[in-house]
Each structure stands twice: as structure tokens, then as C-alpha cells.
Specification:
Length: about 120
């Protein structure tokens, strides 16, 4: 590989792996458990189960998206790469799990922080 390919992989490899991993897990939750009825089959009709309550509560009121946006703002203020990766994962999950409104700007902030475009724009 040429040095241009190596630099491209170093810039985008980690963020792409994080984004696709988060989208895969969120897709499995949404289409395999929530919309397919697997979550309802996990719990009996007589009792509420903790897993069902936690999964449904996580995307009610776009909580995953709002968490991504909050962590994105903290990552932006502190310039922490690890928080940008957490933001990226939560934003991708938020886009898949019914929280696209607040997850979309969080995704942009995470991508700009991870590829280094945000610090250049502030100079």
C-alpha cells in the first residue's frame, strides 16, 4: 500500500469500524428484537421484564440521540478522542433507534472531531 492509502486508513479506519459496529448492533436490536417481536417473546405477558423495559426506555423520547448530543458537546469542549468515539457509536445507534433528530448533529460533531477537521476550522 502507498503512504496515501495508509494515511487514509489511519484517518477513517477507526471511525468507520466504530460506526458500522454500532449500526450492526442497533440494527439487530431494532429489526431482530423490537420490530420482530423477539423482545415480547422474551418476557411473559404476566410480568414486566427488566430487559424489555430497559430496551424500550432507551429509545423512548429519543434518549439515545440526546445522550449522543450531550456527549458530543462534552467531547467538543474537552477535545477527547475517546468521547468522540463514544459519540459516534451512540449517534449511529440513535439514528437507527428512532432518535435521528438529536443524533444527526452529534454524528457531525463526532466525525469532524475524529478526522481532525474541527480543530483546523477553528484556527
Amino acid at each position: 500500500m502507498t503512504s496515501a492509502h495508509v494515511n487514509l486508513w489511519r484517518t477513517w479506519g477507526g471511525p468507520l469500524a466504530t460506526a458500522f459496529g454500532a449500526l450492526a448492533v442497533a440494527s439487530w436490536l431494532r429489526f431482530g428484537w423490537i420490530e420482530n417481536g423477539g423482545l415480547a417473546a422474551l418476557c411473559s405477558a404476566q410480568n414486566e421484564c427488566l430487559i424489555k423495559t430497559a430496551v424500550v426506555a432507551s429509545f423512548t423520547d429519543q434518549r439515545v440521540g440526546w445522550a449522543a448530543l450531550l456527549i458530543a458537546l462534552v467531547a467538543l469542549a474537552t477535545r477527547r478522542g475517546a468521547l468522540a468515539y463514544v459519540t459516534l457509536a451512540l449517534a449511529c445507534a440513535g439514528l437507527m433507534l428512532y432518535g435521528a433528530g438529536p443524533a444527526a448533529p452529534a454524528l457531525w460533531i463526532a466525525v469532524l472531531l475524529l478526522v481532525g477537521a474541527w480543530p483546523k476550522a477553528l484556527r
